[in-house]
């Protein structure tokens, strides 16, 4: 409709003019925008498929606000769920530690456990909790609970409790996050509708010039 007014050289309100200008620019350069967005995504995605890229990606992901903490705790939950399932009762059960690390779905955690925790236990004779602490991938709450379990001889139960605790916490926070995202999407839609309403109202006020 606004384009029809331009055809007859009718003056348009400022907001309508800017909207049309933006629309024309997007129509002319959409391919450039698509290329500028898609090319970096493809390059980064390809790099993320490499071993170093996966480690870098997962290390940065767990440091993201809100979402990163959820992903990190979810990986910890998976680690101790697997650990508690196959744990054989020995504090230096290396194969159990390795298998759980491979199952946690976080390349950074897996790399740190394999390169720091396991070598410290094998070469330096460190205890399980001390070596896990050195990896710097577990939360303070996790390490405290493990230390208590190791001292009382209930390491298996501690691992299972950690998994259950983080499963409940991540489920609760994930539901809250979903509700927040739904609210945010609703606000964005409301703003878009309001903007379109204002533009439509401006167009309705346009009248042909009088001579």
Commentary on this structure:
There is one protein chain. With 211 residues, the chain is mainly α. Among the domains are: 26-61; 76-165, no CATH class. It is 81% helix and 0% strand. It is built from nine helices and no strands. The protein has helices spanning 2-7, 14-48, 51-61, 67-86, 94-103, 107-123, 128-135, 140-152, 155-204. The longest helix is centred in the last third of the chain and has 50 residues, at 155-204. It is elongated, with a radius of gyration of 28 Å. The two termini are 23 Å apart.
The tally of helices reads 9
Helix proportion range: over 70%
Quantity of strands, as a count = 0
Low-confidence stretches: none
Strand content: under 5%
Summarize the biggest pleated sheet.
none
**Helix-strand category:** mainly alpha
| Quaternary organisation of the protein chains | single chain
Average pLDDT, to the nearest integer? Answer: 87
What is the terminal-to-terminal distance? 23 Å
Order of SSEs: HHHHHHHHH
Radius of gyration, taken over Cα atoms and rounded to an integer in Å? 28 Å
Based on Cα principal axes, name the global outline: elongated
